[in-house]
Every structure is written in structure tokens, then in C-alpha cells.
Fold these 3 entries.
Entry 1:
Amino acid sequence: MDIKYINPFINATINVFEDFFKITPVVQKPYIVKNNEDHEWDVSAIIGIAGEARGAVVISFTETLAALLTSKLVNRPVSSINDDVIDTIGEVVNIIAGNAKKGLEEYRLMISLPSIIKGKNHQLAWPVRNLPIVGIPFKTSEGPFNLSVGLENIITV
Amino acid sequence: MISVRRLMRNLLTSGTLDTLDNELRRRVIILNLMIIAGFVMLTAFGTIALFETNVIRAIIDYALAFFIVALFVAMRIFRTFHFASYAATIAAGLVYLYIYFSPGPDSSGAVWLLSFPVIAIFNVGLRPGVVFSIVCVIVITASYVLGQIHTTFEIVNTIAGRLGSTQHSFDFVIRTIGTFIIIMLFSAFYEYVRTATQARLEEANLDLERTSQDLLNRKQQTDSIFKNVNDGIFLLNKSLCFDSEYSHALEGIINKTKLTKVSFLDILKDKIPEKAFTATADYLEMFFSPNANLELLADINPLEEAELNFQMGEGGFKTKYLEFAFARIGDEERLFKILGTVRDVTPQRELANQLLVQQDRNKKQMENLFQIIQVEPRLMKEFIADAEEELENVNAVLKSDEEDYRFILDTIYQSAHAIKGNAVLLGLETISGMLHHLEDDIRGLQDKEASWDDLFQLTVHLTEIQNELEIIRQLIDKIVSFQSSMASGSAGQRNLMLSYIERVINRLQEDLGKEVILSANRFSGDLISPRYRKTIKDVIIQLTRNALAHGIESPEERSVKNKQRIGTISIATERQDGNLTITFRDDGRGFDADKIRARAKQLAMFQNTDIDSLSNSQVIALVFREGFTSSDTATMHSGRGVGLRLVKNKIEAGGGTFKIRSAKDKYSEFVISFPT
């Protein structure tokens, strides 16, 4: 796993939060994520990555933060995860992915459209077994959210 | 209107419409025309004759009219067109001759006769028509000549008089025959030209048909090639859109149907990386430049081995490996097009990749397996558990609010070092190599302010180490279940800690060229309570490593010092006043206060300390300070200046204390106490 593939996602996340929500997320210390470990997140967006590295980038939110971000965009209060929230998170993460793409132009890398998973302590099936996964927590004035990245380098012929 | 037309057509073609060939059809039409015209005229004449009370003429006219109507009906029923043509022609000839000789008002019968060549030639064709016409001429001529014969033989005269005719004058006959022949010639000429033209036309038609059939066959062949070939074959026009002709397989290869006029670049977009996409657009553009170097173009094809990633939803991709080739068709004068072919080599590539990944995995697994299989699974399990615990600790710090990067790096370093020590010991080269790299990375950060990115990179390495541990754990689980399935009459639970220490000694003495024996008669693992197990194990292992690396001399050096060639490490456990005491002793060179003093003076960290004024025991205490090392280079076994500090930290973190006793060139001894 090479951090050059991940940094564009971190930067894009910060930029999009600043531009869209006027919130500046502060990146915290990264940590080790174990496959299938429990977590506190309620909704996650998965962006698949293929090409010279394979895996996924996952952005996870708490219900509170996801609802708050949505209400900021739709201009009315939202309290729980409904279709609006799913759509909003999908759209925001899509923009993040699009932003990150610019930073990844020099690599042979493809980024998929995000798909959304919700539910308390939802489990993600990472594309490859035994994938090293690193977690990158963000702190915002409105609560934390989390970016996890699992990538493996492809051995090419 | 249309029905009248259809009726006419039906009547004129005797109901055959378009089914006959052209020539016959034309004849049938003429015949029917003649019949109709003849019928009309004959009934008209018959009626006029009736009015003139010329009953015989009327009967003849009506009979003839009936005859040709019968012919008309017979033709429709029996379709005996040839017979009918001849019958009609002969009948017409006979009637005309009759009229000619009758000879009609003002000899007008001759006028009727003049239409015979036209009728004959058009009806029965050129040659028979001419023959009939000539017969007609002969009859007229003969009859005139016979009419002029006056011989001495009465009988001859009588016969000639019967057969011959004298109704027409010589001039009349000559003119009639002349006109007749001219009409015949023109008709014949016309018929000749017409049939010749017709023949040529038919030939040309046949040629055309043959050519179009040929083309059709070729088209079918091309179509069947396009339909059945496995490769994608296509043409791109100047705006890089697909032409309508492309092979069937293309749709399957690029997962899209109805490609005509679809832009090739639109297909590629979002499936290949941005850079490759731009390169491809530029590349294809070059084909349309009239002075493009086609050989060069073939060499720089950016899609020669393209990887197309098709989005499948759920954040997943379907990857296809496609080999594209492009060629220009057409020359400078004509419009250029690009002929493209594409082959799907996904199965081959996936297989090759899988094979490589599998090989790599197998190789790693075999390596791991070889490394693991030599170690008792209990030791391995303990190693994994300990390593995971270390990583948990690190992760706890990473997840905490701790912002002191120095402290974090130090924590990572110490944990990595501890895991590495055990990994080396167990011969797990992959893991220890990874940890060694990690240590190198952290050491590289020692002299500068570590950034978030640095920490990120280290964490990524940690996840990879964690992952590797997981792989080993899975392997061990397999081995353990394999072993437990075998008969389990094991050789008793020898104390794991001693096994560990023996391993350290065995490994290190080989690597360092030293000879050491372990004396553990006064060691009892039972005295060590579980809560100190890991701490004590880590400490003793570190001390053993230090003893081998720094304390115990090489056999040669020992001989020179009049010591036994083989060094001794002794470990003892003891319960004293409710405390657990562990004594670790080696008979090596001991702490050399002067040497430490000299070394300390070289190290930047003691620049501000007055080394010379310190007592010997104070000097020895320096060894436990961060960054102190007696070696200049780091090896896998020692020398990062962390060993003794680690000992100190571990003991203190476990709630213990320790004392050092040492005599130069004789021994060094650690007495470690833990409350029970």
C-alpha cells in the first residue's frame, strides 16, 4: 500500500468539506484497522479502486454528522438516516472521488462511483482477503468521521 | 383506371402477365394486338358486307373473325403461342392474298398485303417472317407471270390461266412488289437490330446479375466473418466514431450494443486512466495527418495492451485486458479511415496474473511455513499473541489524543523492536525484515520533526505487518490443527521461556561466532505469575541478546583472557520477602566504565554533561538512556541503542526494580525484582 494513492483522497475530503459545508476537518493520527472489527459508524460510502493498486477507500459517518451535513445541503432539519441522507452522502463522496481523481492522474488507477452502506456497526466486505487496512480519523466541529483505505499493489506482468 | 389497364395487360398477354421471357411476351402482345385489330376490322367488314347484301363476303368475314377469336381463346387456354403465331401469320397471309387477288375496290387488296411483312416478321421472327414474305412475293410474281403466258399448248395456257392472274398491270405488280420488299427489308432490319440489341441487353443484364450475385456472396462471406470472428474489427471515421460495419464480437468486447456513429473515445472514457485517454485521443488524431509516419504510429500505440475497467456498481470493477491495433486505410486522395482491431485477452492475462499472485503467495507461504514449521507451535502462538498485543498497544496510542510525535514514534519503535526480537528468534525472516525496515524509517526521522505524512507512512507499514502476522496466524492455526489431529503424546510442557532463551542463544552464537551455554538449574518457571510472564520474557530475552552481542567475548578473546572458551549465561528465580527475584548473569566482559565514559563523550546527547565527574555506577546508568549504543552500526540483533533502555522501560512499566552488579572482564549481573 502506497500512501501516494491515498493522499489525494485525504486532500479532496478536506477541500470538499471546506467548500460545501464550511467545515474544516482536522486529520487525526492514522491507525491500524483489523478486518471485521467493530466500529461506531452508521453510514459508509465505498469507492472501489482498480488499476495498478486494487482495493477500496471507505468514508464513514455517524448518523448525527451525516444528518447534519444533509440538512446543510437541503436547508431543512434532518434527524435520521433517510433517502436524502443516503443521496447526499453518495453525492458528497462522489465529489470527493472526482476531486481525488485529479491528484491521481499520473497513476494507472480507476475510481468507481461510490456505493453506500448503512446500519449500526455495518460490516464491509473488503475486496481481498488479508488486505492491510489503515484508518484515518477526522475531527470536525460537528463530530468525527473516518476514512479507511485498504489497498494492495497489483503484481503486473 | 388501373383496372382497365390491368384488363388490357391481361388481354394482351393472354393472362401470362410478366411470367414469359421478354421475347415471347412481346410476340404474344403483338399477336393479341393483331387478333383484336383483325377481329374488329373483320366484324366491321362483315357487317358492311351484310348491309350491301353480299352474304358470302359477310359469312367469310364473320368466319374469319370467329377463327381468330378461337385462336385468341386457344392461346389463353393452351398457351401454344408458337403455333398460334404461325397459324395467325399463315391465315393473315392467305387472307391478304385472297384480298389481293379479289382485288377489292380500286385494287385496294394490295394495300392490305403491304402490312404482311411487318406482321410476319414481328409475329414469327426474322427468318420465318422473311421466308413467309418472300413466299408471298413469289406467289404474286408467279401468278402475274403465269397470267402472261401464252404458249402454243392449250393445256398449258388453260392451267396458267387458272393459276395466273391478269387483274393487275405489270406496273402495278412491280410497284406492289417493290413497296412490299422495302417494307419487308425495313421490318427485317428493324427486327434484326431489335433482336441484336435485345440479346446484348440480355447479356449485359446477365452479367449484371452475375456480378451482383457475386457481390452478394462476398457480402455474405464478409458478414459471416464479421459475425463469427472473435476479435473486434471496426472502422473509425474522421470524428473517431464507429462506422456501421463492425464485427459482432466488438459489442461483447466493449460491453455496448448499437455502436454505429458512437464515439470510440466516449467508450474509452472512464475506463482507462486520464493520461492514457488523452494519449489515445492524440494518437488517433495523428492517423489523419497526411504525412503521418505509419510505422512509428504502429510502435507507439497507447492501447496496445490496454486495461479497461468497467464499472459494475457496488463500487466494483470488471477489468478487461484488451489489445488494440490500428491501421490507416485509404490514401492521400481518398478519405482516410482507421481500421481497428481489438482482442480480448482478459482470460489469459487474468490467468497469468493469478498465477503470479499465486506463485508469490505460495512462495511466501512456503517461506513462512518453513520458518514456522521449525518452531514449536506453542512458541509461535505465543509470539503472535505477544506481537498482536504490542500492535494493540501501539494502536491504542495512535487512537488516543496523544500529540507528542516523539513519544508516538518511540512507542512504535519499542514495540517494533520487541516484535522483531522475537521474530528473529523464531526465524521469521519476512516479518523481522519488515520490522527492521520500519525501525530504519523511524531512525531516519530521529533528527527531524516528524510530519503527519511520516506517521501515516509508518502506520501503513504497521498495517502491512499486522496483515503479515494475520497470514502467519492462519498458517499456524492450520499447523496446530494438523498436529493436534496427529497423536499428541508430547514430551511434556517444557518451560517456554527457557525454550525461547535457548533459541536466542543458539541463533545468536552462530551469527556472532560465539559459544555460550545456558545454566538454568535454579530457574523455575512456576514462580513467575502470569501477569509478569511477558515482561520477564521480554526482559530476559533482551538481556540474553545483549549478553551475546556485547557481554560475552569470542572464544579466542576468552582464551587470551584465560577464561573458558565457552561462555555461560545463568538464570535463576527466587522468592524473597514476598518478592520474585530473577537473576541474570553472564560471565562476559562486564561493564567497562572507562569505555562507556569514552563512548558517552562521543555522543551528541551528552555534550552538556560532565562525564568525567560521574562515578562508575553513574556512568553505567548512562547506558539506559535513550539513544545510547556501544556499536556504531545496527544489525538485526543489536545496536540500535534501544536494548538496555527497553529493559529498563519494561521493568519499570511492569512495576519492578533492578540492580546491576558487574566486574570488568569477569561478569555482569542483573537482579530484577517484582512484587508478587
Entry 2:
Amino acid sequence: MNALKTPFFPVHGVIRSIIELAADNRLFEIQLQEPNGLPRCRPGQFVQLWIPGVGEAPISVCSGKVGASMELCVRRAGRVTSALFQMQEGDWLGLRGPYGNGFPVELFEGKDLVLIAGGLGVAPIRSLWQYLLDYRQKFGRLILVYGMRHSIDLLFRAEFQVLLRRRDLDVYIAAEDVVGPQLPTVSFQLGRVTDMIKLAQITPGFQAAVCGPPVMYKYVVQELRAKGMPDSNIWLSLERHMKCGIGKCGHCYVGGQFTCRAGPVFRLNDLQFLPEAIECA
Amino acid sequence: MEQCFTFEKEQFPLFFEAMSEHGTVLAPVRVSEQSFAFRPVSSAGEIAFEALRTILPPKKLFYPQRETILGYEGRTIEERKPDVKPQVLFGVHPCDLAGLGVLDAIFSSDPADSHYLARRKATIVVGLSCMPDRYCFCNSVGTDSPEKGYDVFLTDIGGSYFARVNSPAGLQLLQSRPGLMQPASGDARQQYKDFWVNRDRAFQIGFKSGNLPAIVDMEWDNPIWEELGQRCLSCGNCTPVCPTCYCFDILDVASLTGDSGERVREWDSCQFSGFAQVAGGFNFRPGPVDRLRFWYRHKLHGFEDAYGFPTCVGCGRCTVSCPAGIDDIVGVVLRLQGGQDGQGGEER
């Protein structure tokens, strides 16, 4: 009678490495204990990370390739992430997923792309640029725009040093404020994400993939529209607190859709009839 | 052709025996002067046949307020299967049957919820007809005639019950007492039809729902949300009493030593302030106005996109349970349909 298995069953993962990226931001590499424990992952999907005794939190997958291991870029923000920051290499945790639709990488093929990340929104965007660079010849021009409030919040410093040298990728990094005793080791400009979009050579045929804090979308959308981009070319990854990841618990419900199933990546013209999705002028 | 039977009300104890044989019988019983609840009963005499709406809908029997999903000890994780025994749920009215239908659709959609379905599949549901009171409006939302979610449906046709069968298990239940059931006569069929015609005429409130999804979206900025939301206490009463509200949270309950514990699912409510809050404190629905409007839209339009149906079944529980008196769904719909000034609409 109870042949069905609960969809809430996690697989084991072990923390293989922890890298400090910035204050309160760490990159965790998680080794999956069951080799086929989780299905293949697409850029932009997320997992439910479980710390026994503490709880679960939805975390974007941050690495383009997910096989036996995956990378999660986590900011210490709440109960579960605070507990994660107490953990050491070798500790185990639970994972469910991957969930959500991810970015439409097949649709992106043959097209020019601009990736826009604000703050910690760089985590899912990183999974996308790693994927795009792995299959670089399939895509047209690539522009990466990354903005943050303070220069010391820059994540993936070492990776950007490499990316900035690539000729097949234009990188624009902006911070609203320079903070700290030394300047960051990558070149960046003062300003906001929107200033960088103004600078970048974006034409109406581009596709845009955007992830950032909730307040960012309205302004980014305005800039992209000013560049002549139609709404159908703009893809936004929305943040909600998914408790289940499988379209049941109701926490990520937006308008008529579950962000965890229909999203988290939505095409802008699909969002406009969903009340509460984003503030869109 | 659907199989229809009748049996005399005097014979109900025999029918009760047949139900008890299958498993525990759960039925509405009177728990206070004016309230009823679904409880296990051991005799027909305990059943409150007059019960219209129980405090909580029958969802609590398949989807308890709190249940353990997983347990862990050290690195070992195991599923905690629900303790499922055969049971018969008696006395479910059409609105609650529709509510179960909504939950069935949600919890059986992929990936299916094993805990809900295990209890659901072990249960025979016997529906029972009712006459509307001044809070009932199932005929406005299309849930007034029982279509699915039941095994047997009994309609009160005076001295007898008219039994419609909707599943093999239901048929078996009716036939398990030889001689109890008579094939429905022509007269009985006419009495059955008369009952439902009269019932339809007995509704005191209502609205036309055809344009409802469009109206709710059109009136997203209507001042009514501000007016009602200002009075909302965010108590969340409206959600546990709703037959189709099922939002939940899953939390860890750890042992004192921390090396073992459980993952527990609990009912949650979209009316609580932290429901739509994300890491870092940003809240997509920070105030009671946002949350009340969200709830109304979800009930009256909500699942058209995700599942293809709205979720209000017209039972009136939220209306009678709201301490602030702002869950008058019929009144609100009439005002929305009548426009900004609150005039018009089509009152019945």
C-alpha cells in the first residue's frame, strides 16, 4: 500500500572543500555519496540543502558541470546557512534536486547573450557562463555584467582574473563603492549594473539572463528595453523561499505559478500577467 | 448506467455495520452547541446527521496538521511511513468532496505525496446530501453536485437514502448486507431529482462565477483590499478551515544530543508575516493587505494556471471563522464584480 517513496528523501553529500570568497560568502564543493544520487543538472537550477537538525534551504547550483560533485556559493544569511558555515570539510549533509527549469540553453544556441548578475545572483549566473564557455562555439557574442554594492563583496576573484583575459567574452564589473584597505585584484568600475549595461554593446537581438536581488529587476529591465530588446528576449531568475522544491508547499507561489516548477527562470513577457512577480514599469 | 439504490433510514444501523466492517468509521459529531468535527464513531447514534460544516474540513484525516516524514539517526535516514488502517469517512458534503478532489489533484501530481495518498487510498468516502444555510455558496463555484472523490453518495429523500455508487469499493460496501439495498424505483429517482432541484432553490447567497478569474485580476488594485486588509489580524484562521488550503513548512526536530531527529511537516499559512520572506529579510508580501489580497486571488483564480481550476469550494468556513469579518467571499466578489463603488453585481 505504501509503495510510493516520499519525494522529500535526500541523498548524502560530503563537503570536499570550502573556499572563502568574501566576508560571509563561501564556495562549498559537495561530493555526492551515491554516484547517481541526483539527476543531471542544468545551469540555473537549484537544490534543497539539508543540514540535519537544522533544516533545509534552497541554494542555486553554482557550477556548470555537475557530476559526482557540485559547487554551491552560499552567503551566511539565515539559520541553515549559518549552520553550514559552522561545518568542516568532511562533514555530511543532505541534498534534494535539482529543481526548477534552469536557463533555456538550447534556445540560447546561435544567439548573442548578455548575462547580468547582481550581488549573490552571480551564483546561478556562474553555472550559466561555465556552461556557455564549455560549448563556446555554439553561442554568439557573450557579455557578462556583474555588479555589487561594495568592492570587497566581489566573488570569484580568481576566476574573473582569467575571464577578463578571454577575448571571446566581454566582462563588465561594477561596484557602487570602494571599500577596504586594498583595491580588488581585478579591474572594475564605479557604478551600478545598469551603468554597465549602458556601456556594453548590446543590440536588440541579444538574449539576456538576469539574476540579482529583487529590487534590481525593475531597473535592469528598463535598461534592456532602452537598448531595444523585446521582453521575449529577457530571462529573469526569481528568488523565493522554496520549502519543498516540488510545487507543493506553496511558499514560492507567484501569480498562478510555482517558482520552483515553472521557474525560477521566467521569460519577462510571461511574468507581466503574474501579480507580485516583479515590480515592472 | 450509474448504479442507484435506496435503503430506508430505519435500516441505517445495518449500513453502519457494513461500514464498521471495512474499518474505523469517521463521521461528524457534535462537539459543542454550534460546532461539529469529524471523529471516529462506534455507533450510528453518535453521528450528527444535521452537521453542515465541521470546524475543520476532512483534509485533516489525510493530511494531518503535523506529521513526521523522515527520521534520521547518525547518517542513516529513513522514511516514516504513515500508520495507515482501512477507514470509512461518512457524511462528507459536496463542497468537501470537491475540496478533497482539489487536494487529490495536487498531492497526486508528480512527484506524488506518498503520505497523503497512502491515507487517501485506505479510505472509503461516503458522501451525504445537505441543505444550504445562509453561508453556503457551493452552487456559485460549481461544486454543488458531487462528481468525484466519493465511493458512495447518499441523498436524503425523506424516509430513505438514495445511494449513488462511484467505485467498486462503494458497490461492495452497499452489497455487503444482503437485502439492505433495493434498486432505486422510478418514484425514488423522481424524489432524488426533486431534492436537488429544491436544494438549488434554497441557496440564499451567491454570485455568477463566469468572469471571476478575469475580474480578480482586473481588480488587483481595487481599494477593497486596503479596506479589508487593514482589518486583518493575520491570525491565519481562514487557512486551516479551508478544504483546499494545504501550504506547509517542513522543519527539523532534533534530539537533545543532536545526532538523531525527525523532519516534520506542519500546516503553514500564507497569512503569516514570514510566509513569503526570503534570505536577507526581503518580504514579497510584507503586510496584511498584500497577504489577504493574495489569498483571495488564490481562492478565486489561483490554480487556473498551475492546475486548471480555482480553489474555492463555497463551504463558507472562512466566512464564519474570520474574527475580523473580512472573509465574506460572496460579498467581496459581488463588490468586485460591481466595480469600484461596490454597487451592482448579481445578487441572488
Entry 3:
Amino acid sequence: MSLGEPRRNGNGGGHEEENLPEVAGRERLAAPVQRTGMFGAKTSGDTSGYGGLRVRRTGPPAAERPYTDPGDPRTERFDAVADALEEALRDAPVGYRDAVERVVVDRGEITFHLRREHLAEVARRLRDDPALRFELCLGVTGVHYPEDTGRELHAVYLLRSITHNTEIRVETACPDADPHVPSLVAVYPTNDWHEREAWDFFGIVFDGHPSLTRIEMPDDWHGHPQRKDYPLGGIPVEYRGAKIPPPDERRSYA
Amino acid sequence: MTTPTTEDYIDAAGGDWDEVVAAAQAGSAERLVVNMGPQHPSTHGVLRLILTLDGETVTEARVGIGYLHTGIEKNMEYRTWTQGTTFVTRMDYLTPIFNETAYCLAVEKLLGLTDRIPARADVIRVLMMELNRISSHFVAMATFGMELGATTVMTNGLREREMVLDIFELITGLRMNHAYIRPGGVAQDLPSGAVGKVKELLEEMPKRIAIMRKLLDENPLYLARTRDVAHLNLAGCMALGVTGPLLRASGLGWDLRKAKPYCGYEDYEFDVPVSDGGDVYARYRVRLAEVEQSLRIIEQCLDKLAPGPVMVDDPKVGWPAKLALGPDGLGNSPDHIAHIMGGSMEALIHHFKLVTEGFRVPAGQAYAAVESAKGELGCHAVSDGGTRPHRVHFRDPSFTHLQAVAAMCEGGTVADVIAAVASIDPVMGGVDR
């Protein structure tokens, strides 16, 4: 999924024309769709849900200033946050334009896509600057986009400012070949377990984490189960000598 | 079993306690590493605590989780968005309605339907969430009592909770694992008799709360076990991401229902109980006060319940089958079956497509959070434009709060560990997902 392209599917208020069935249908057919399993199934016609139906489409495009949409009260503080972040990074070793790759405003939420090397520095400013004061980090979660070449693994952080009652999303990406993201445990100690979880499930290595070990899966587990290339189930279970295949390989009537 | 000893610690990994004690006395070791759980009765399910003891004092408390990991988030990627509710309701099994609501709010945000949810559906959601808050808080108090050896607290708490579960059973058909809140609204309208049953609860519950208060508020034994135990201050809460009753017991009146209202919470009058004790007792007081506020909200819900639809008026999303409660339980409504099987071929096709394939959710990501009984329960949902989630992640409050065990317990006694963990009120189903 290439996130930089303009999106094809409309959403919400301003895109009503795009939502007309005829237009939406035409766009859907024109969109780069990769569909496997279930409808368009080649082998079993499996409707159990394990067929792995996939439909890929483009994500929301990068937003331009102003980020605040006067018609949407949820976006009220977005420009203020962006200004404050720009201001807070003025005396920092890294400038706003270097640190922030792009900004996405979608569905009343703002996402700052940061370059991973500057993540820790920006997070510290986000927490400490009086105009920002994102005291509470709601953890990090991984998302795996296998099609997003060179940026397959995303680490998504949600920050909440109790002082200003604002929330933002901070996202950073790393390639599969070099899955390293700096740890934010020093800034937000709550991320300790959340980073361990993202490592466990996605294989993102959080550099600087005090003890990056598996948290949900057993210590000797192989692979990172939430990645898209990891099958559901996938572990042959043995029961009284009979091998039970993983669920997504069970039904094959072909 | 002989206890393995090394120069400076004794690993009490099981076996005869007398042998452990003897080994401790024989050697020069001062440290004792005790493995509490994963099946210890007072560890709230399969939680494992690794405690390093110096005498009675806990010098190091580490937490091991993952024993109840069921891969819910992974499984959801192989099911439709609607089927997701069936999974999420099983995460934190004491707060199923909150799980479902957080998930549905995220899906609705992705769909851009947030403002189109019918008013009646919102009121029912609030009603169910507040009932759920009551049941969850009573279980928190009950298990806490049980773990301290106060069986009456346990039986009373579970009895009070049962009143709520009866209502849940009447409304959703199940005591737990409801899958009642659905993207777009709720699965079905309130059955006849539900409002009466809720009114009964509103009448009875204040008496039950009074009993609980009489039993615990000034009980010297209870005070001795909870006052100044497992202290966590506001700075600690913020650093460790602690929210919910624990944060409010540390002096900050932060409540998402007030700060970021959802489901129409801005239209209800209620207070946010706060205490600055920061200890186990303060958390108990906050929880009980929250139960009282929940009753206030439920009362207002009944006033707001106006007739109307309970599912969004969008045939592309709204579940086509109107469920009906028959003599043999919950099932498809006979009218709907007659319509699709005998009346309209298009309706049948539509029903089939929506039920088997599911609805499409525009690509993008969304985060929705609710104030669950335990704290901020957030759902981060990512769609690739298909009929199944690309990724769904839950920020479960119990998961985050368990990190605070070390901060709460180190330096205290072993007995206080039990109180500390119980005051966090973790549910492993939610922690491990």
C-alpha cells in the first residue's frame, strides 16, 4: 500500500459525490485490487474465513495546512499542535522538516509520520513542551504493510495530552530488512510492555529497550505471529499421533 | 524435591515449603525467589509473579504474562468486521460491553458513521456500559475480599453482580460474551420487561451498596490491609500510563466520559469520584462511588429511551436480519426470514453478501477509546479497504496497569502484593488477548 497517493475512496462529509454507488463502484473496479480467497477463490470456495480474502487500496493522502477544518470540531487543535511542535523543535538538533515526514489528517485524527532516527527527540519535546504536554502515551502497536516496500513495519503511538485534552498519533516506519526503531521507554516508561508486545508480534527491534524479550508468546517461539506473512494457526497440533493441520490449510476439496 | 541453592539466593520453585525453609535457614542466603502463579488462586487468573524476598519484604517484583494469549487480534484479521465483536467481547470477559463499544466506535469512525448512530442505540449502549461498570466493580471488590480471606465480601459482591448479569441475559441472551454492540448500533432492541428489570435494579442496588459500605468502609481489618498499601502517586500513574479508577484514586479526575464524550455522554449528569489517597483503600472508595454514579446515569438512560431504530439506517452496513427472541432463544426474526426466503430475491442476495462477505470499510486507520471500568480501553483499527480488518489492536487497561506492580509492591510485604494486584483488578483475558 503506497500511502502517498491520493485516496480513491471517499469518506464522510466532504466526499458525498464520490460515495454515489456508480462512482464508488467504478473507482473500486479501477483501484489496484489484489484479491485472493473467498470470492474469486481458485480452489475450495472456502467461506470459513480462512481463505485470506485481501483487497488492497490506497490510504489517505498527506494533508496540507491548515490541518484544522472549521467544519469538524475534532480537528480544532491540530494546527495549534503542529505550530507548537514546530516551535518546540526550533532549538532542537533536528528541525521540524527533518523529523516530520508528512502529516495525515483523516477521520478527525491527526497522524505525524516521523523519521525513526528522530523519534525519541521529538517524543521528549512532545512530552515536555508546555504548549504540547503529551503526558500520557497509550502505548505502541505494530502494523505490517507487506506491500509498502522499504517501510513494511510501522510502529504507531498514541499520545494524549491531559493538560490540553488533545490526542495525536505518531507513526514511524522501518524496513523489514532493518527492523529497528528507537525505544521510547526512557520518555514514556509505560511503553515497556507495549514495545515488548510489538517486538513479540512483529519483530520490531526497539533499540535501547531495557529488556526486549517476548511477552505474550513463549520465550522459545519462532517467528512473529501478527505479521502478514505468518499464517493463522500455522502450528501443526499433534493429537494421539494424528497431525492436525493449521486452520487455513484444513479445507481443501480440490 | 530438593531446593536448588546457590551462593546468594534460594529458588523456591515448588515442592515442600518446609524444605525451602530448612534450606533457607541452613545456607547463608538472604534472598528467596518465589514464583507466585501462574495458577495461584489469588493472582486473578493466570498471572505469574516472580518475587524476590528478603524476609517478608519484597525487594523485586516481576510480572510474567502471556499464559492466556489466544491470538484474538490475529484471528480478527480473518473474520469480517461484524464478526469481530464476537472476539472482542471475550477479551476482558468482565467488561464485554466496553470491549464491544470501543471496537464498534473505531469501526464506525473508519466508516464515517459516528454521527449517524441512532439515538436509541446510543442510549442503550450507555445503559449497558454503566450496568457493566457496576458488575465489573463488584467483581473487583468481591475478588479482593476473597483474596484477603473475607468470604462475605466475595459472596455479596458476586450476588450483586448477578443482578446485572440477569439483566444482560434478558437483553442479549447471554450472561457474558454478548456480541451485543455491533458496528452501526446494537444487535437488537430491548426486549419487553427489560426496563422494568433495570428499574428493579435501580431500587435494590442502593441498599446493596449500603451493605457493602457498612461492611468495608470503616472495617478496621479492611483498613489495616488497604490503607497506605501499594501506594502510587500521580506522577507514577502518568509515567506508567495508568488510567481509570487507579488514576482517580491518585487525585486526578480524568474520565474520558467527560473529557472526550462518546455515545452521547455529554448529555448525562454525573460526577467523577476522585480521591487523593493513592492507595488500595482509595481505589476501593473510588470504585464504589463510581457504582453510585453509574446508577445515576442508568436512571437518566431510562428517561432518554425514546422509541426508534437501534441500527444505523444504512443497508450497506446495518445487519439485515433483525434478531428476535423466540421461545427457544435468540434467533433470526421470522418476518425477516419470510421476506428473504419468500418475498424478495434481491433481499436474499443482499443478506447473503452482507453476512458472508461483510461490508467494506474504507482504507485508513482510526483510534477510539472508552472509559472502561478499568481505565482507558482503546481500539486501534486499520483497514485496507476490504471486508476484514487489516489490523486491530486493543490498548487494554489491565495490560498497562500490571506494569505498575513493581512500583506498588517493591519495599512492601508479601501480603501486600495480593492487595496491590487485586486493587489493579487485572483480567488476564484482556491482558493477553
